[in-house]
Amino acid sequence: QTQLVESGGGLVQAGGSLRLSCAASGRTFSINNMGWFRQAPGEEREFVAAISFSGSSTYYEESVKGRFTISRDNAKNTVYLQLNSLKPEDTAVYYCAADVRGRAFSLAVNQRTFYDYWGQGTQVTVSS
After folding, report:
1. β-sheet bridge partners, residue 123
2. Backbone torsion region of residue 101, taken as left when φ is above 0, otherwise alpha when ψ lies between -120 and 50, otherwise beta
3. Sign of the C-alpha dihedral, residues 91, 118, 42, 108?
4. Helices in 1-128 by DSSP H: which ranges?
5. What distance in Å separates the CA atoms of residue 74 and residue 45, rounded to the nearest whole number?
6. 5 vs 16, 56, 97, CA distance in Å?
7. pLDDT in the model for residue 102
8. Distances (CA, A) of 78 to 73, 91, 96
9. DSSP assignment, residue 35?
10. Which is nearest to 12 in space by CA: 70, 71, 77, 67?
11. What confidence category does residue 29 fall into, taking pLDDT thresholds of 50, 70 and 90?
12. CA atoms within 13 Å, Cβ hemisphere of 124
């Protein structure tokens, strides 16, 4: 089993920044690609960003390109999401997810079914 715990969420004004962290524990040796998703009230959970095991490949949802940055530190079993220039529409619960089946990094990383484990989420609220 693999456990994921997100942290770093909070309340921030529009234009502000936050850094989310997702710490993995358990069978961390099997973790390959990782991703971030978000879910606003009454909405479907949507893809935000993904990163390959090595960190050399990343993929972003169009609306966050240039504002959000995903990164990882495999020595710490942690993936990060830097959120800059936040907008009220970024308000959501942010979830991290892990692929442990060794899939190739592809456009499929934006699909929820690509991932095997999920964290409990961290709330990000952006005020106008």
Report:
1. 93
2. alpha
3. positive
4. none
5. 26
6. 23, 23, 10
7. 87
8. 5, 23, 10
9. E
10. 67
11. confident
12. 30
pLDDT digits 0-9 by tens, 30-57: 899 999 999 999 999 999 999 999 999 9
Cβ atoms of 15 and 85 within 8 Å: the answer is yes
Strand partners, 43: none
CA distance 128 to 36: 24
Q: What is the SS3 assignment for 54?
A: coil
- Determine the distance from the C-alpha atom of residue 111 to the mean position of all C-alpha atoms in its chain, rounded to a whole number: 13
Distance CA 36, CA 127 (A): 21
Picking from 30, 21, 125, 36, the residue whose alpha carbon sits closest to that of residue 73 is 21
Strands 122-127 and 10-13: parallel
Q: Can you read off the two tokens belonging to residue 5?
A: 């715990």
Average per-residue pLDDT in the chain?
96
Query: Is there a contact between 48 and 97 (Cβ–Cβ < 8 Å)?
Result: no
- Is 7 within 8 Å of 121 (Cβ atoms)? no
User: What's the gap between Cα 124 and its chain centre?
Assistant: 12
